[in-house]
Amino acid sequence: MTTIAVALDPARATLHELPDVLTFIESPPGMAPLTTFRLACIDEFGYLFTLRSAQKDGVRLFAVSPSVYFPGYGPLVSREVRDALGMADDTEPTLLAIVNPGENRATTVNLLAPIVVDPTTGNAAQVVLDGHEWPLRAPLVAA
């Protein structure tokens, strides 16, 4: 199994290794019936990634390690989500956030619905967080 390094802070002091194939327990919103995506890093730091469908050519999402660009970002992952992913109690999930590239507008990041990944299995889920603390379209700025 190949792994991809995900930086959890701008200094790259903390890295998580994720499998290069993520299996969603439910299709991400708007992606049904797709559940299997290949993760690839597209920068040298572990900040920016592509998720390409392993089931349908041409389907690609961009994602970032949100804590790199939004240092206060650290939503709690519920027990329900951890159980659905089959995550062990001592496993720390890795979060990714979908990027919405802007052509004539600012590029934004969806902090309201992060992708939660079990780093040991590659099981993943895009989860809508409770509350209004995190925006759906947070402007992306350089780390």
Care to describe what's here?
The chain has 143 residues and is mostly beta strands. It has one domain (3-139): BH3618-like. The protein has two helices and eleven strands; from the N terminus they run E-E-E-E-E-E-H-H-E-E-E-E-E. The chain has helices at residues 66-69, 79-85, and strands spanning 3-7, 15-19, 21-24, 36-41, 48-53, 60-64, 94-100, 108-109, 115-117, 123-126, 138-139. The strands form two sheets. A seven-stranded mixed β-barrel has the order 3-4-5-6-7-9-10. Strands 1-2 form a two-stranded antiparallel sheet. A hairpin with a 7-residue loop joins strand 1 and strand 2. The model has no long low-confidence stretch (mean pLDDT 94).
List its traits.
143 residues; mainly beta; BH3618-like; seven-stranded mixed barrel; two-stranded antiparallel sheet; 8% helix
Give the helices and strands, then pairings.
Layout: E1 3-7, E2 15-19, E3 21-24, E4 36-41, E5 48-53, E6 60-64, H1 66-69, H2 79-85, E7 94-100, E8 108-109, E9 115-117, E10 123-126, E11 138-139
Parallel strand pairs: 3-10
Antiparallel strand pairs: 1-2, 3-4, 4-5, 5-6, 6-7, 7-8, 7-9, 8-11, 9-10
How would you sum up this structure in a few lines?
The protein is mainly β and 143 residues long. Helix content is 8%, strand content 34%.
Euclidean distance between termini CA atoms:
30 Å
Q: What strand order characterises the main sheet?
A: 3-4-5-6-7-9-10
Return the domain count: 1
> How does the overall form come out from the CA principal axes?
globular
Q: CATH class, anyone?
A: Mainly Beta
- CATH homologous superfamily grouping: BH3618-like
Q: Biggest β-sheet: count, sense, barrel?
A: 7 strands, mixed, barrel
Number of strands: 11
